[in-house]
Amino acid sequence: MALSVAGRTARRRRPPGWTVLGVCTALVVAGPLVALPLSFVIGGEAFGQIARTLLPQALGRSVLLGVGVAAGTLVIGGGLAVLVSFYDFPGRRWLDWALVLPLAMPGYVLVFVLVGQFGYADPLQSSLFGTGLQLPGLRGPAGAIGVLTAVLYPYVYVLGRSAFLGQSRQSMEAARNLGCSYGRAVRTVALPLARPALAAGAALAVMEALADFGAVSLLGYQAMTDAIYRVWYGAFDQAAALQLATVLVGLALIMVVAERLLRGRARFHQALSRGDAVVPRRLHGWRAAGATAVPCLLLALVFAVPVAQLLAWSVESVIADRVGAGLGAAVFNTLLLAAASAVIAVITSTVIVYGQRVRPSRIGAAAARLASVGYAVPGTVIAVAIYVPLVWLDRRLIDGAEALAGASIGLLFTGTILGLVCAYVVRFHAQAYFAMEARMARIHPNLDDAARALGADRARVLAEVHAPLLWPGVLTAALLVMVEVMKELPATALLRPLGGDTLAIMAWEATKDSRFDTAALPALLIVTVSLLPVVILIRLWSRRGPGSAADRVTPG
After folding, report:
1. 250-308, pLDDT tens digit by residue?
2. Which of 123, 277, 499, 543 could serve as 130's disulfide partner, Cβ 3.0–4.6 Å?
3. Which helix (H) or strand (E) element contains residue 25?
4. Cα–Cα distance between 88 and 283 in angstroms, integer?
């Protein structure tokens, strides 16, 4: 009897297979990032010279870029969130969602359009908006910070807008009763309450700015990502590239920790009941006209005019039969890589999420979060980090094939489409994981218990109970990963096989050679596809309904 009880206790303590599988999957996804700190232990000796020559300048420029983008996105994104949340003016309802659209414009595409219209080469004389003018400062730090701020401010805007919508008007009314004007109440009450959300948006923007390769490369701004690329392809020193990548990851983490330290121990709690949201104040006269004109001008400069210019160049190139010869292959490669990466990312995220659902544990939660770190790591770093384990794996497979069958199988992962897919999964696994985690959380545990009581094992519960309910999350996760893969430039530039160009590579290479007519159509396709997750975000946001308290207006 005692042995039977002991056996049942041991079975209860033994982790289920799905939990173990989920932890192992998470560790495999996060595994390549371990190569970064290990590079200082087993790395090459060239880093000492690079640290004295290349590193100080590149590191300083990355710090300047990060600080500039953080300040710019906070001013623009936070200011627009305040304007739309607390004031009513003509066009406010459609600007509420339209201000998110620049998120679909990759930074390197915006640079491509600016260079084609104003830049450092002769623009197309027959272009719709080409003027032949030179744009001063485009190649300097101001140009890099300005371009990245213009396409990344929606991170701060979206999170700030959501925070403002969740605030109660009692706080504002208390400040007004103490003699504060409406504007001062917004500055002293609403903004401090939204500080965590605004800081989180700025942190995301900084991460994306530090990860950017295409825009800074086209602008000649030699930041850390550009330095890693040059060491990788110029000096062919993989160990030094890994060490530079480690420094870049450390810089990103330092900026996040600095934001946390500056925030201190401050915590802001809000309670909002239905009909208790802040009521925006109506603007009149020149104030209303200015409130409408400024966002419209920003949208025109960052989104509408560039898209119209891309469309004009694309039509022009098609009519003149100047479409790039490899466009069809680039479209196929892009779709193939995006679809394969999306399928694998959805599978890995489902296994990890389900493993945590079967038996939650601290180890499983830590492994799941570790596997999501890749999204905060630049694509250049991911490419450099994943190269080492892929080379090791290829060597083991080649040696094993020769020992067992005497055959030479060649490289299976390094320099192939499989290696690229692995890099994409490490980079964008977080997108799929959070989408699947949110959807899985909506499935009531009673359904699992009922299926288990009827004799179904864990695999059958997942296949027959969860799978039909998870499909919206699966679709969202797959779409997000596909779009991110289609836009990804640095990892693709470092790891792509010969002749394996994607739309992003085709647009970037053509832009470097000032062939704007060739670059226009692939760039337009990238922007068009990138609109899909933005539209999803807008649709989810709009579900709060037009009749919410946030949309009611009080006269000024």
Report:
1. 777 676 666 666 555 555 545 444 446 667 888 888 989 999 999 999 999 999 999 99
2. 123
3. helix 17-30
4. 6
